Predict the 3D structure of the following.
Amino acid sequence: MRHLARHGLVVMGRIMLIVLLALHAAPQTAAADQVIVVSNDRGGKIGARARMLEGMRASQSRIEIRGGVCYSACTMYLGMDNLCISPATVFGFHGPSRNGRALSPAEFEHWSQIMAQYYPAGLREWFLQTARYSVSRVLRVDGASLIRAGYASC
């Protein structure tokens, strides 16, 4: 009888373990199914955006860029997996600055490299060779052009 009681406790323990594992896994599954819609984002601080993107990458969130504009640090989304973009969105690229003021050469290089690491290879090369040197003027690329270059449309 004691053996049956012990066996029952072992089975109950296994059931509880399965339930706990299922409860623990549920939030991760929910995060992976999360859709983040980016709309009319004019950018912001590069470091803060990089930290945010790393969190999104870890959660495997789907990212949809919609709306009129995605400028500056917003363009860093373009290197994310599970991304789609609207053909109507205009993406604006420029080099790093401090509220429009020039950075020191070392800071300029540092923040340019941070931004560039979030772009796929072709876009990274263009940014590093061309767009980052445009600090006072935004270089615009429409979503339709990026879709023709291989981005998924949404």
